[in-house]
Input
Amino acid sequence: MFIYNAWYVAAFAADIAPGKTLGRKYLNKPVVLFRTETGEVAALEDRCSHRAMPLSAGHVEGEIIRCCYHGVEFDKRGACTRIPNQTRIPPAANVRYYPVVEKDHLIWIWMGEPALADPSIIVDNPEHDDPKWTWRPYNFPVKANWQLIIDNIMDLTHVPYIHARTIGGNPEQHYGADTKVEFDGRKVTLLRKMPNSIPPKSYVDAGGFKGRVDRWQEVRFNPGIGMTCRVNAGGCDAGTGAYEGKRDHGFMLANNHFITPETETTSHYLWTICTTAPKESGVPDVLFDQFFDTITEDEETLQAQQARIDDEPERAFVGIASDGAVNQARRVLSALFEAEHEGVIAAE
Output
Protein backbone atom coordinates (compact mmCIF):
# COMPACT_ATOMS: atom_id res chain seq x y z
CA MET A 1 0.00 0.00 0.00
CA PHE A 2 1.35 3.39 -1.04
CA ILE A 3 -0.12 6.84 -0.46
CA TYR A 4 1.00 9.12 -3.28
CA ASN A 5 -0.63 12.41 -2.31
CA ALA A 6 1.53 13.06 0.73
CA TRP A 7 4.77 14.80 1.62
CA TYR A 8 7.75 12.50 2.24
CA VAL A 9 11.33 13.33 3.17
CA ALA A 10 13.45 12.41 0.16
CA ALA A 11 16.84 13.36 1.59
CA PHE A 12 18.64 15.69 3.91
CA ALA A 13 19.48 19.00 2.25
CA ALA A 14 23.19 18.37 2.81
CA ASP A 15 22.95 15.17 0.74
CA ILE A 16 22.53 17.17 -2.48
CA ALA A 17 25.49 19.38 -3.28
CA PRO A 18 25.33 22.00 -6.04
CA GLY A 19 25.82 20.42 -9.43
CA LYS A 20 25.39 16.89 -8.08
CA THR A 21 22.73 14.24 -8.60
CA LEU A 22 21.20 11.72 -6.22
CA GLY A 23 19.29 8.72 -7.53
CA ARG A 24 16.79 6.99 -5.25
CA LYS A 25 13.56 5.04 -5.49
CA TYR A 26 10.42 6.25 -3.73
CA LEU A 27 7.13 4.34 -3.74
CA ASN A 28 8.58 2.06 -6.45
CA LYS A 29 9.35 5.08 -8.66
CA PRO A 30 12.99 5.84 -9.64
CA VAL A 31 13.71 9.52 -8.98
CA VAL A 32 16.72 11.75 -9.56
CA LEU A 33 17.28 14.69 -7.22
CA PHE A 34 19.67 17.45 -8.26
CA ARG A 35 20.65 20.93 -7.16
CA THR A 36 21.03 23.61 -9.82
CA GLU A 37 23.64 26.34 -10.02
CA THR A 38 21.26 28.77 -8.31
CA GLY A 39 20.80 26.33 -5.42
CA GLU A 40 17.31 25.08 -6.20
CA VAL A 41 16.58 21.37 -5.73
CA ALA A 42 14.58 19.54 -8.40
CA ALA A 43 13.22 16.00 -8.73
CA LEU A 44 12.50 14.18 -11.98
CA GLU A 45 11.81 10.60 -12.94
CA ASP A 46 15.19 8.90 -13.18
CA ARG A 47 14.82 7.81 -16.79
CA CYS A 48 15.76 9.65 -19.94
CA SER A 49 12.89 9.60 -22.41
CA HIS A 50 15.25 8.72 -25.27
CA ARG A 51 16.77 5.36 -24.30
CA ALA A 52 15.87 4.92 -20.61
CA MET A 53 19.31 5.87 -19.29
CA PRO A 54 19.15 6.91 -15.62
CA LEU A 55 19.43 10.69 -15.44
CA SER A 56 21.17 10.30 -12.09
CA ALA A 57 24.18 9.16 -14.11
CA GLY A 58 24.11 12.46 -15.99
CA HIS A 59 25.51 15.93 -15.41
CA VAL A 60 24.08 19.13 -13.96
CA GLU A 61 25.02 22.35 -15.74
CA GLY A 62 23.43 25.63 -14.75
CA GLU A 63 19.71 24.97 -14.41
CA ILE A 64 19.51 21.77 -16.48
CA ILE A 65 20.42 18.10 -16.17
CA ARG A 66 22.02 16.40 -19.16
CA CYS A 67 21.75 12.70 -19.93
CA CYS A 68 25.18 11.10 -20.10
CA TYR A 69 24.18 8.81 -22.98
CA HIS A 70 23.30 11.17 -25.88
CA GLY A 71 23.32 14.63 -24.30
CA VAL A 72 19.55 15.19 -24.10
CA GLU A 73 18.80 18.00 -21.64
CA PHE A 74 15.92 18.63 -19.21
CA ASP A 75 14.94 21.56 -17.00
CA LYS A 76 13.72 21.52 -13.39
CA ARG A 77 10.14 20.80 -14.48
CA GLY A 78 11.08 17.86 -16.67
CA ALA A 79 10.72 19.68 -19.97
CA CYS A 80 13.17 18.54 -22.62
CA THR A 81 15.05 21.70 -23.60
CA ARG A 82 17.63 20.36 -26.03
CA ILE A 83 18.29 17.36 -28.24
CA PRO A 84 21.71 17.59 -29.90
CA ASN A 85 21.59 18.22 -33.66
CA GLN A 86 17.79 18.46 -33.62
CA THR A 87 15.59 21.56 -33.58
CA ARG A 88 12.20 19.93 -33.07
CA ILE A 89 11.55 18.56 -29.59
CA PRO A 90 8.53 16.24 -29.39
CA PRO A 91 6.28 16.64 -26.31
CA ALA A 92 6.84 12.95 -25.53
CA ALA A 93 10.47 13.78 -24.80
CA ASN A 94 9.48 15.47 -21.53
CA VAL A 95 9.86 13.50 -18.30
CA ARG A 96 7.80 13.61 -15.15
CA TYR A 97 8.71 16.04 -12.41
CA TYR A 98 7.87 15.83 -8.71
CA PRO A 99 7.26 18.86 -6.47
CA VAL A 100 9.99 19.32 -3.86
CA VAL A 101 10.43 21.71 -0.94
CA GLU A 102 13.59 22.45 1.02
CA LYS A 103 12.71 23.24 4.62
CA ASP A 104 14.45 22.82 7.99
CA HIS A 105 17.46 21.13 6.31
CA LEU A 106 15.15 18.51 4.76
CA ILE A 107 14.10 17.86 1.16
CA TRP A 108 10.39 17.00 1.01
CA ILE A 109 8.92 15.34 -2.09
CA TRP A 110 5.31 14.90 -3.30
CA MET A 111 4.90 11.71 -5.33
CA GLY A 112 1.26 12.24 -6.32
CA GLU A 113 -0.68 14.73 -8.40
CA PRO A 114 1.43 17.93 -8.59
CA ALA A 115 -1.61 20.21 -8.54
CA LEU A 116 -2.51 18.93 -5.06
CA ALA A 117 0.91 19.62 -3.52
CA ASP A 118 0.65 22.43 -0.93
CA PRO A 119 4.06 23.32 0.57
CA SER A 120 2.45 25.51 3.24
CA ILE A 121 1.10 22.49 5.15
CA ILE A 122 4.46 20.76 5.70
CA VAL A 123 5.21 20.14 9.37
CA ASP A 124 7.84 22.31 11.05
CA ASN A 125 10.99 20.86 12.58
CA PRO A 126 12.18 23.93 14.51
CA GLU A 127 14.90 22.09 16.46
CA HIS A 128 17.01 21.99 13.28
CA ASP A 129 17.49 25.78 13.35
CA ASP A 130 17.08 26.64 17.03
CA PRO A 131 20.43 27.42 18.71
CA LYS A 132 19.12 25.92 21.98
CA TRP A 133 19.13 22.51 20.32
CA THR A 134 21.95 20.34 19.00
CA TRP A 135 21.05 17.70 16.44
CA ARG A 136 22.45 15.03 14.16
CA PRO A 137 20.90 13.44 11.03
CA TYR A 138 20.89 9.76 10.07
CA ASN A 139 19.62 7.74 7.12
CA PHE A 140 18.99 4.02 7.53
CA PRO A 141 18.00 1.91 4.50
CA VAL A 142 15.70 -0.63 6.14
CA LYS A 143 14.63 -3.91 4.57
CA ALA A 144 11.09 -3.68 5.91
CA ASN A 145 7.71 -2.27 4.93
CA TRP A 146 7.31 1.39 5.80
CA GLN A 147 4.19 0.82 7.92
CA LEU A 148 6.14 -1.48 10.23
CA ILE A 149 8.44 1.44 11.02
CA ILE A 150 5.47 3.64 11.93
CA ASP A 151 4.02 0.83 14.04
CA ASN A 152 7.31 0.54 15.90
CA ILE A 153 7.46 4.25 16.73
CA MET A 154 3.82 4.39 17.86
CA ASP A 155 4.34 1.34 20.12
CA LEU A 156 6.64 2.41 22.94
CA THR A 157 6.01 -0.71 25.02
CA HIS A 158 8.77 -2.40 23.02
CA VAL A 159 11.35 0.01 24.45
CA PRO A 160 12.35 -1.88 27.66
CA TYR A 161 12.82 -5.11 25.72
CA ILE A 162 14.42 -4.18 22.40
CA HIS A 163 16.33 -1.26 23.92
CA ALA A 164 17.27 -2.70 27.32
CA ARG A 165 20.93 -1.71 26.83
CA THR A 166 20.23 1.89 25.77
CA ILE A 167 17.03 3.85 26.51
CA GLY A 168 14.97 0.98 27.92
CA GLY A 169 14.21 1.14 31.60
CA ASN A 170 11.97 -1.14 33.65
CA PRO A 171 9.42 -3.20 31.63
CA GLU A 172 6.74 -3.02 34.32
CA GLN A 173 7.02 0.76 34.43
CA HIS A 174 6.58 0.94 30.66
CA TYR A 175 3.53 -1.32 30.61
CA GLY A 176 2.13 0.39 33.68
CA ALA A 177 2.72 3.91 32.32
CA ASP A 178 -0.09 6.44 32.45
CA THR A 179 -0.96 6.24 28.75
CA LYS A 180 -3.37 8.34 26.73
CA VAL A 181 -4.11 8.06 23.00
CA GLU A 182 -5.79 11.00 21.28
CA PHE A 183 -7.33 10.49 17.84
CA ASP A 184 -9.40 12.87 15.73
CA GLY A 185 -9.53 10.95 12.44
CA ARG A 186 -6.55 12.80 10.94
CA LYS A 187 -3.81 12.60 13.54
CA VAL A 188 -2.77 10.40 16.46
CA THR A 189 -1.09 11.59 19.64
CA LEU A 190 0.38 9.17 22.17
CA LEU A 191 1.06 10.61 25.64
CA ARG A 192 2.87 8.58 28.31
CA LYS A 193 3.95 9.44 31.86
CA MET A 194 6.30 7.29 33.93
CA PRO A 195 6.64 8.95 37.34
CA ASN A 196 9.32 8.00 39.85
CA SER A 197 11.23 5.87 37.32
CA ILE A 198 14.74 4.50 37.47
CA PRO A 199 16.45 6.46 34.64
CA PRO A 200 17.94 4.43 31.77
CA LYS A 201 21.63 4.75 30.98
CA SER A 202 21.18 7.34 28.23
CA TYR A 203 19.23 9.61 30.60
CA VAL A 204 21.85 9.34 33.33
CA ASP A 205 24.61 10.18 30.85
CA ALA A 206 22.71 13.13 29.39
CA GLY A 207 20.98 14.52 32.47
CA GLY A 208 23.37 13.61 35.24
CA PHE A 209 20.54 12.18 37.35
CA LYS A 210 21.46 10.73 40.75
CA GLY A 211 18.07 9.33 41.68
CA ARG A 212 14.65 8.59 40.27
CA VAL A 213 13.04 10.71 37.59
CA ASP A 214 9.63 11.60 36.19
CA ARG A 215 9.75 10.57 32.52
CA TRP A 216 7.51 11.55 29.64
CA GLN A 217 7.14 10.31 26.07
CA GLU A 218 4.97 12.11 23.51
CA VAL A 219 4.51 10.88 19.94
CA ARG A 220 2.65 12.88 17.29
CA PHE A 221 1.66 11.41 13.92
CA ASN A 222 -0.19 13.52 11.36
CA PRO A 223 0.61 12.20 7.85
CA GLY A 224 -1.54 14.88 6.23
CA ILE A 225 1.26 17.38 6.91
CA GLY A 226 4.21 15.05 6.33
CA MET A 227 4.98 11.35 6.74
CA THR A 228 6.79 11.72 10.03
CA CYS A 229 6.49 10.73 13.67
CA ARG A 230 7.68 13.45 16.05
CA VAL A 231 8.78 12.13 19.43
CA ASN A 232 9.38 14.39 22.42
CA ALA A 233 10.79 12.69 25.49
CA GLY A 234 12.79 13.41 28.57
CA GLY A 235 12.96 13.40 32.33
CA CYS A 236 13.28 15.58 35.41
CA ASP A 237 14.15 14.73 38.99
CA ALA A 238 11.07 13.09 40.49
CA GLY A 239 8.54 15.48 41.95
CA THR A 240 9.98 18.66 40.42
CA GLY A 241 7.06 19.56 38.15
CA ALA A 242 7.66 17.72 34.88
CA TYR A 243 3.95 16.98 34.42
CA GLU A 244 3.02 20.59 35.14
CA GLY A 245 5.21 21.79 32.29
CA LYS A 246 8.29 22.64 34.38
CA ARG A 247 10.89 20.86 32.28
CA ASP A 248 13.63 23.41 31.61
CA HIS A 249 15.72 22.08 34.51
CA GLY A 250 15.60 18.52 33.17
CA PHE A 251 16.72 16.63 30.12
CA MET A 252 14.77 16.92 26.85
CA LEU A 253 15.19 15.28 23.50
CA ALA A 254 13.34 15.31 20.22
CA ASN A 255 13.55 12.33 17.90
CA ASN A 256 12.09 13.11 14.49
CA HIS A 257 11.38 10.07 12.32
CA PHE A 258 10.82 10.49 8.57
CA ILE A 259 9.49 7.35 6.90
CA THR A 260 9.54 7.08 3.11
CA PRO A 261 8.65 3.86 1.26
CA GLU A 262 11.19 2.64 -1.27
CA THR A 263 9.39 -0.56 -2.32
CA GLU A 264 6.75 -2.72 -0.66
CA THR A 265 9.41 -4.32 1.53
CA THR A 266 12.15 -1.69 1.77
CA SER A 267 12.14 1.84 3.20
CA HIS A 268 14.17 5.00 3.59
CA TYR A 269 14.25 5.66 7.33
CA LEU A 270 15.64 9.14 7.89
CA TRP A 271 15.70 10.54 11.40
CA THR A 272 17.22 13.26 13.52
CA ILE A 273 18.07 13.17 17.20
CA CYS A 274 18.00 16.55 18.94
CA THR A 275 18.77 17.57 22.52
CA THR A 276 18.94 20.65 24.69
CA ALA A 277 22.00 19.33 26.54
CA PRO A 278 24.84 21.88 26.18
CA LYS A 279 27.03 21.06 23.20
CA GLU A 280 30.22 22.02 25.03
CA SER A 281 29.45 19.41 27.72
CA GLY A 282 30.08 16.59 25.27
CA VAL A 283 26.74 15.04 26.30
CA PRO A 284 25.07 15.44 22.88
CA ASP A 285 27.73 13.35 21.14
CA VAL A 286 27.39 10.60 23.76
CA LEU A 287 23.61 10.72 23.44
CA PHE A 288 23.68 10.70 19.65
CA ASP A 289 25.94 7.65 19.60
CA GLN A 290 23.63 5.85 22.01
CA PHE A 291 20.59 6.65 19.89
CA PHE A 292 22.39 5.39 16.82
CA ASP A 293 22.68 2.09 18.67
CA THR A 294 19.00 2.36 19.64
CA ILE A 295 17.76 2.84 16.07
CA THR A 296 20.11 0.09 14.91
CA GLU A 297 18.27 -2.21 17.34
CA ASP A 298 14.99 -1.09 15.73
CA GLU A 299 16.38 -1.74 12.27
CA GLU A 300 17.37 -5.30 13.21
CA THR A 301 13.93 -5.89 14.74
CA LEU A 302 12.04 -4.55 11.73
CA GLN A 303 14.07 -6.60 9.28
CA ALA A 304 13.51 -9.76 11.32
CA GLN A 305 9.77 -9.03 11.34
CA GLN A 306 9.71 -8.50 7.58
CA ALA A 307 11.51 -11.78 6.97
CA ARG A 308 8.84 -13.69 8.91
CA ILE A 309 6.03 -11.76 7.23
CA ASP A 310 7.50 -12.69 3.85
CA ASP A 311 7.29 -16.36 4.87
CA GLU A 312 3.50 -16.08 5.37
CA PRO A 313 2.34 -12.74 3.93
CA GLU A 314 -1.38 -13.49 4.41
CA ARG A 315 -1.07 -14.36 8.08
CA ALA A 316 -2.67 -11.72 10.31
CA PHE A 317 -1.28 -10.15 13.47
CA VAL A 318 -2.93 -10.80 16.83
CA GLY A 319 -3.66 -7.57 18.68
CA ILE A 320 -2.95 -6.84 22.36
CA ALA A 321 -4.12 -4.08 24.68
CA SER A 322 -1.10 -1.83 24.13
CA ASP A 323 -1.72 -1.58 20.36
CA GLY A 324 -4.06 1.42 20.67
CA ALA A 325 -1.88 4.08 19.05
CA VAL A 326 -0.63 1.62 16.41
CA ASN A 327 -4.20 0.74 15.41
CA GLN A 328 -5.24 4.39 15.19
CA ALA A 329 -2.22 5.24 13.05
CA ARG A 330 -3.11 2.41 10.69
CA ARG A 331 -6.67 3.75 10.48
CA VAL A 332 -5.39 7.19 9.44
CA LEU A 333 -3.21 5.67 6.71
CA SER A 334 -6.00 3.40 5.47
CA ALA A 335 -8.35 6.39 5.23
CA LEU A 336 -5.83 8.33 3.13
CA PHE A 337 -5.27 5.32 0.88
CA GLU A 338 -8.98 4.69 0.42
CA ALA A 339 -9.64 8.36 -0.33
CA GLU A 340 -7.12 8.30 -3.16
CA HIS A 341 -8.47 5.09 -4.65
CA GLU A 342 -12.11 6.08 -4.36
CA GLY A 343 -11.46 9.25 -6.32
CA VAL A 344 -12.08 11.64 -3.41
CA ILE A 345 -8.52 12.79 -4.02
CA ALA A 346 -7.13 12.53 -7.55
CA ALA A 347 -4.63 9.69 -7.32
CA GLU A 348 -1.37 9.40 -9.14
